[in-house]
Amino acid sequence: MILSDADILRRLEEGDLVVEPLDDPDIQIQPASIDLRLGREFLEFQRTNIPCIHPNSEQEVDEYVDSTHVEEGEEFILHPGDFVLGTTHERVEIPPDLIAHVEGRSSLGRLAIVVHATAGLCDPGFEGKITLELSNLGTAPVALTPGMRISQLTFTELKSPADRPYGKERGSKYQDQKGPQASKIQGDREFGGDQ
Ligand SMILES: Nc1ccn([C@H]2C[C@H](O)[C@@H](COP(=O)(O)OP(=O)(O)OP(=O)(O)O)O2)c(=O)n1
């Protein structure tokens, strides 16, 4: 079951679902989602002399990524074909019986801006800011302003709460991220036995 505005407000009031700061619920809470705003930090992927990035090499991933902070009143220009990591301004806490989906906003989709290239799922138990995978599929550069409503989060109730929610106890790599976070796939747990 997908939560409606009334369900979302109830869960926020009960306090187990957290989205903060929610400065203007009238604007941010939509009929069945919450609009999230763009933060100030971005990770850009620079052209590199490395022949290719090996996902398992933390050093190569770090070398490839460059961090940018956009000051108040400034814009971040997303050029056609660009792919950058951004972050939501809001921090979320997803309770064990909900799953959240990061979705684009139609108004930005109509300008060819995509907010999650592939991954858009926030696990039950996830806490932190959400990393946005921003790309521009169009032909014109688009100016993004921190604080603008960039994405929306929908919530689906699970049939039963997760037994082992996302979190530090299960070594979850992105728990409590405070800004855009590059891939930590190097931290994947190894399978036991022969593969
Ligand atoms: N666009 C997104 C999608 C997800 N997340 C956060 C919330 C998720 O709960 C967490 C992990 O997402 P995935 O399970 O899709 O990622 P991985 O499988 O790579 O990570 P892990 O091995 O930690 O599960 O990352 C995020 O910040 N930005």
Radius of gyration from the CA trace?
18 Å
Number of strands: 13
What is the CATH third-level topology name? Deoxyuridine 5'-Triphosphate Nucleotidohydrolase, Chain A
Mean pLDDT: 93
CATH superfamily: Deoxyuridine triphosphatase (dUTPase)
Q: What class, by secondary structure content?
A: mainly beta
Q: How large is the count of helical segments?
A: 4
Poorly predicted regions: none
Summarize the main sheet.
6 strands, antiparallel
| Beta-strand residue percentage | 25-35%
Mind telling me the CATH class? Mainly Beta
Which sequence of SSEs, written as H and E, runs from N to C?
Answer: HEHEEEHEEEEHEEEEE
Euclidean distance between termini CA atoms: 37 Å
CATH architecture: Distorted Sandwich
Number of domain units: 1
Bound molecules: 2'-deoxycytidine-5'-triphosphate
Q: Which shape, going by the Cα principal axes?
A: globular
Helical content band: 10-25%
Catalytic activity: dCTP + H2O + H(+) = dUTP + NH4(+)
Keywords: Hydrolase, Nucleotide metabolism, Nucleotide-binding
Subunit structure: Homotrimer.
Protein name: dCTP deaminase
Structure, described:
This is dCTP deaminase. Residues 160-176, 186-195 have a biased composition (Basic and acidic residues). There is one protein chain. 13% of the residues lie in helices and 34% in strands. It contains four helices and 13 strands. By secondary structure, the chain is mainly beta. The chain has helices at residues 5-14, 25-28, 58-64, 106-109; strands at residues 18-20, 29-30, 33-37, 41-45, 65-69, 76-78, 83-93, 98-104, 113-114, 121-122, 127-136, 142-144, 149-157. Strands 1, 4, 5, 7, 9 and 11 form a six-stranded antiparallel β-sheet that branches. A five-stranded antiparallel β-sheet has the order 2-3-13-8-10. β2 (29-30) and β3 (33-37) form a beta hairpin. The chain has one domain (5-47, 59-160): Distorted Sandwich (Deoxyuridine 5'-Triphosphate Nucleotidohydrolase, Chain A), CATH 2.70.40.10. The longest helix is centred in the first third of the chain and has 10 residues, at 5-14. The N and C termini lie far apart (37 Å). The relative contact order is 0.22. The chain is globular, with a radius of gyration of 18 Å. Bound molecules: 2'-deoxycytidine-5'-triphosphate. The site of 2'-deoxycytidine-5'-triphosphate has 15 residues, from β10 and β11.
